[in-house]
Amino acid sequence: MAPDSDVTEQREPAWYRVALRTWRSGGGVLPTTRDGAEIAVIATVVCWRIITLALILVAVPDAFAHSSRIWIDVTLLSLVVVESAVAMVRIIRCRNCISLRWAVTETVLGVACLLAEPLYVPVDDRVSTWVGWAPALAVNVTVTAAVACRRSSHTLMLVGLLATAYVAVSYPAVGQSADRGTVVSNTLTYLAFGLLVRGMANMIRRFGRDADEARDAASEARAQVELERHRRLLHDPASLLRYLADPDLDPRLAGVVREQALAEANRIRAFLDPEHTVPGSRSAADGETSTLLADAARAAAAGFTDLPIELVLHLADGVQLSPPASRALTAATATVLHNVRRHAGPGASVVVHGDHHPGDGSWEITIRDDGQGFDPSRTAPGYGLREVVGTALAEHGMSSHIHSQPGNGTTVTIRGAAR
């Protein structure tokens, strides 16, 4: 690039800037909800540790002033700060705070600070003062034990070690004084914090896991719906392609099939590219679909000029359907007529009869052929009758029934409620 170019390299913002911007806006993009839940747990652990260390460091001057062995105090506090910094950076970079090794390391350090208190904290300052800062650190370590262990038994064991170390050091220091109740309540605090934080962390993680599973299930359901939509769209065109591939296709049928194939090709093209329009054609999605029941049946029969179809639809004139239901009825009727063409046999005739029952507001369409028929108990309906006629119509509040007998033709009855 030329030196005088006005284009400057765009750098990715630092992670902490992204975090601050996300915090201010109250939103942000996370890879998964489970990762977001883990980040929430990490944020709680990190913030709690920072606050605890800040409180300890604020009390450092007073602690050092009263310390009996200041070099032990400084050494232990330095170890705690260094270990905390390394641990916090690690879990932030990994975005995961589940680590038994980390929990054990922090527990060992917390127990060591508690057991070493008699060496650097005077007896009178071991309970209820920040001179003895180890009990406050130990409470924070219980948070680590609660969120970092996969098993509850490990959490209880580590928290129990912290509580035992606290009692071993603090109880002898208070003797028979009134501070015994403080020691007992502080000991119970370790157990209560451990169980409470573990329960909350597990609940947050479970919410994230359940949300991801629900999202995956919804995505799979959407994929199945889209697959079914494509299968329904391509079912009738596949039948037409089968005819066109037949070298012995009746020339009288070839012209009709080509016209239907062109119409289906335009429909598929409109489906693949909704902005594409074919001059002189109408797609099912262009908003021009008639909502009259009789028109929906006539539209389906219009392409089957090779079949002797008798339309008896005057009794259903005026019955209104919703546009999606009208399109579904047209597609189902066309699929039935494709089956008649393919299976009814030569010379079969078809009657499409519509009826309206004003008393209960229902309507009925029957598509009857006098072909060879079949035995439904031995021959299961194919995909077209099962899905395009059955399931697709049911999705729009319509029902279908197939009645057939060998040698007596087939009747498909479609029923629904008028708008």
TrEMBL record:
<keyword id="KW-0472">Membrane</keyword>
<keyword id="KW-0812">Transmembrane</keyword>
<dbReference type="InterPro" id="IPR036890">
    <property type="entry name" value="HATPase_C_sf"/>
</dbReference>
<feature type="domain" description="Histidine kinase/HSP90-like ATPase">
    <location>
        <begin position="329"/>
        <end position="415"/>
    </location>
</feature>
<feature type="transmembrane region" description="Helical">
    <location>
        <begin position="70"/>
        <end position="91"/>
    </location>
</feature>
<keyword id="KW-1133">Transmembrane helix</keyword>
<feature type="region of interest" description="Disordered">
    <location>
        <begin position="399"/>
        <end position="419"/>
    </location>
</feature>
<feature type="transmembrane region" description="Helical">
    <location>
        <begin position="180"/>
        <end position="197"/>
    </location>
</feature>
<dbReference type="InterPro" id="IPR003594">
    <property type="entry name" value="HATPase_dom"/>
</dbReference>
<keyword id="KW-0067">ATP-binding</keyword>
<dbReference type="GO" id="GO:0005524">
    <property type="term" value="F:ATP binding"/>
</dbReference>
<feature type="transmembrane region" description="Helical">
    <location>
        <begin position="103"/>
        <end position="121"/>
    </location>
</feature>
<protein>
    <submittedName>
        <fullName>ATP-binding protein</fullName>
    </submittedName>
</protein>
<feature type="compositionally biased region" description="Polar residues">
    <location>
        <begin position="401"/>
        <end position="413"/>
    </location>
</feature>
<dbReference type="Pfam" id="PF02518">
    <property type="entry name" value="HATPase_c"/>
</dbReference>
<feature type="transmembrane region" description="Helical">
    <location>
        <begin position="39"/>
        <end position="58"/>
    </location>
</feature>
<keyword id="KW-0547">Nucleotide-binding</keyword>
<feature type="transmembrane region" description="Helical">
    <location>
        <begin position="127"/>
        <end position="149"/>
    </location>
</feature>
<feature type="transmembrane region" description="Helical">
    <location>
        <begin position="156"/>
        <end position="174"/>
    </location>
</feature>
